[in-house]
Amino acid sequence: MLNRIVLMGRLTANPELKSTTTGKSVTSFSIAVERNYNKSGEERKVDFFNVVCWNYTAEFVCRYFAKGNMIALEGKLQSRTYQANDGSTRYVTEIVADTVSFTGERVQKANNNNTKDSSSTTSEQPPLPSQPDFENMPMDDDLPF
Fold first, then answer.
1. Three-state DSSP class for 63?
2. How many of the other CB atoms lie within 10 Å of CB of 11?
3. 77: Cβ–Cβ under 8 A, 6 or more apart, which residues?
4. Helix-strand-coil split of the chain, %, nearest 5
5. In the prediction, which pLDDT does 42 show?
6. Which backbone phi and psi does 44 adopt, to 5 degrees?
7. For the chain (length 145 residues), average pLDDT per consecutive 10?
8. 46: closest CA among 62, 61, 30, 28?
9. For residues 106 and 64, what is the distance between their CA atoms, to the nearest angstrom?
10. CA angle at residue 74 from 103 to 39, to 5 degrees?
11. The pLDDT value given to residue 65
12. Contact (Cβ atoms closer than 8 angstroms) between residue 123 and residue 25
């Protein structure tokens, strides 16, 4: 059987790190994912997905991501039930993320406000080395091996 989910979207709120009674780190948040297709003249539709991260993944998300940041994640779809305070049974379907990644979007985090870093872009190339590691070989029929 196969149960894998891959999504990329924007966080709808700041993730908050919590701990279980056994000391495991956990965070839950939702992401907004735009649909690829929209009818002409209509606004693009957005789906919202609930995500849960555990242990180091939860700590990573809470440290480096905030509301509005783009995030890529991979995990599995999971459903569960629980008893609400009023005694009713609630059903929840969520994504348990195994891995999360940056998307290449550069964002600066300052005073809990996120602003895009306009001084750099994702297409920026690293500077070329002054001394190349390779040299041109003479074009003759004798191969060096």
1. helix
2. 20
3. 3, 5, 93, 94, 95
4. 5, 45, 50
5. 81
6. -65, 135
7. 95 94 94 86 89 94 93 95 92 94 69 44 45 57 58
8. 30
9. 11
10. 70
11. 93
12. no
Residue type, 112: N
> Residue 55 is encoded by which pair of tokens?
């242990």
Q: How many Å apart are CA 58 and CA 52, to the nearest integer?
A: 8
Specify the pTM.
0.67
**In terms of Cα–Cα distance, which of 52, 51, 60 is closest to 31?**
51
Residues 6+ apart with CB under 8 A from 81: 89, 90, 91, 92
Q: Give the whole-angstrom CA distance, residue 64 versus residue 60.
A: 6
Q: What are the residues facing 47 on neighbouring strands?
A: 33
Quick one: tokens of 45? 């539709």
pLDDT given for residue 106 in this prediction: 65
Q: List residues bridging with 90 in a β-sheet.
A: 82
